[in-house]
Specification:
A hairpin with a 4-residue loop joins strand 13 and strand 14. The protein is 16% helix and 37% strand. The strands form four sheets. Strands 1, 17, 18, 19, 20, 21 and 22 form a seven-stranded antiparallel beta sheet that branches. A six-stranded antiparallel barrel has the order 10-11-12-15-14-13. The chain has a six-stranded antiparallel β-barrel with strand order 3-4-5-8-7-6. It is an alpha+beta fold. Among the domains are: 100 residues, Thrombin, subunit H (Beta Barrel), CATH 2.40.10; 102 residues, PDZ domain (Pdz3 Domain, Roll), CATH 2.30.42.
């Protein structure tokens, strides 16, 4: 179970090691042919309000709303195949001698020669502009030497990576041409738990696979990278190869970009909200990169349990007297926060005269403030109230 009171990194150092055993991206190299699906048909479902004039259960003569969504969106959903050449070194020995027994005796003295192999990957994407701009995940096209885009009708096109942002896991791929079919974007304010969720993509290379579920939750904060994001959680089945594909509502509007699953769990997948993905994509198209405001602090939401544990910690010279706020757990040496004198144990209570009660609020305020504006931080150090002025810097490369 995910615990929202855990440490949250504010644009500092990657905490992937905490999450990697549980979370995985949706794309991987296919080691073998995927088995045919034996899933049973979906149960009867209630229609959304805008489909109220249709029967509640689909019949052989009556398509349901999922069919309408697929027919509307499928032409704009693409499969993305990638390949990259990897160079390795192998011993210059006959194959019969290239085994652990002989390497045990010869070790590193065995002459080596370069060897190349091609690593292939598969993912999904969808067209956001009639001029051929495709939104996908950064990990789908990461380090790719070649990108090939395949449409639902089987046609293919060479793709070029316009830009990729590993922090948000968003990338944009460009294909030549115009008048391409595009998706419709949902209003971010319309996304609510319990609504229908439809995923279209290429799980395990099975092109144009459709899965259906609901929005399980919104505003999930997960440390998938150096920057926490508010993800959409869904129980619509998402598997390796769904990465970069659209998560849709009952009207066929894109609400998110499928990006991650929890290994070993069932029905727990995550999507980047479409408004976040669009904003990042536009920066990639315009500037080819994305810059994030960086303070260099690691924080923890203050709760009664956390306060009690910290105050009872032996040999601690920090005394937490505040009941609300966000504790600075770590300050990165040389960071903007370190240079102005913020210390571990400080309790941030306001930023720009806006109260902050949890770690996620700090992140949202810092991100909204941007790079070119100062931040006024009010905090409590033991029983002393202090105010600092800091200007965020661009997030350093991981």
């Amino acid at each position: 179970m995910l615990n929202k009171s855990r440490f949250t990194t504010y644009l500092v150092l990657p905490f992937v090691s905490i999450v990697v055993p549980l979370l995985s991206s949706c794309t991987r190299e296919l080691p073998r042919e995927a088995p045919l699906s034996t899933a049973s048909p979906l149960p009867t479902v209630m229609e959304p309000q805008n489909q109220a004039n249709r029967s509640l259960a689909p019949t052989a003569d009556d398509d349901n709303f999922v069919v309408a969504v697929v027919e509307k969106v499928e032409p704009a959903v693409v499969r993305i195949n990638t390949s990259r050449t990897v160079r390795t070194q192998r011993p210059q020995l006959p194959d019969a001698f290239d085994d652990p027994f002989f390497r045990r005796f010869f070790g590193d003295t065995v002459p080596r020669q370069p060897q190349e192999r091609v690593v292939r990957g598969v993912g999904s994407g969808f067209i956001i502009n009639s001029n051929g701009q495709i939104l996908t995940n950064a990990h789908v096209v990461s380090d790719a030497d070649r990108v090939t885009v395949t449409f639902s009708n089987g046609k293919t096109s060479e793709g070029k990576v316009v830009g990729k942002d590993p922090v948000s896991d968003v990338a944009v791929v460009q294909i030549e041409g115009n008048n391409f079919p595009t998706v419709e974007i949902a209003s971010p304010d319309s996304i609510k738990p319990g609504q229908w969720a439809i995923a279209i993509g290429n799980p395990l290379g099975l092109q144009q696979t459709v899965t259906v579920g609901v929005i399980s939750a919104i505003d999930r904060s997960l440390n998938l990278s150096t920057r926490p994001s508010n993800y959409i959680q869904t129980d619509a089945a998402i598997n390796p190869g769904n990465s970069g594909g659209p998560l849709l509502n009952a009207r066929g509007q894109v609400i998110g970009v499928n990006t991650a699953i929890i290994q070993g769990a069932e029905g727990i997948g995550f999507a980047i909200p479409i408004d976040t993905a669009q904003r990042i994509a536009q920066q990639l198209i315009t500037d080819g990169k994305v810059e994030y405001p960086y303070l260099g602090i690691q924080t923890l939401t203050l709760t009664p349990e956390v306060k009690q544990k910290l105050n009872n910690y032996p040999d601690s010279n920090v005394r937490i007297v505040a009941d609300t706020g966000v504790i600075v757990a770590r300050v990165v040496p040389g960071s903007p926060a370190a240079r102005i004198g913020i210390r571990p144990g400080d309790v941030i209570q306001q930023i720009n005269n806006q109260p902050v009660n949890n770690a996620e609020e700090v992140q949202r305020v810092v991100e909204k403030n941007g790079l070119n504006n100062n931040l006024q931080i009010q905090l409590l150090r033991n029983e002393q109230r202090l105010q600092f002025t800091v200007r965020p810097e661009p997030l350093p490369n991981p």
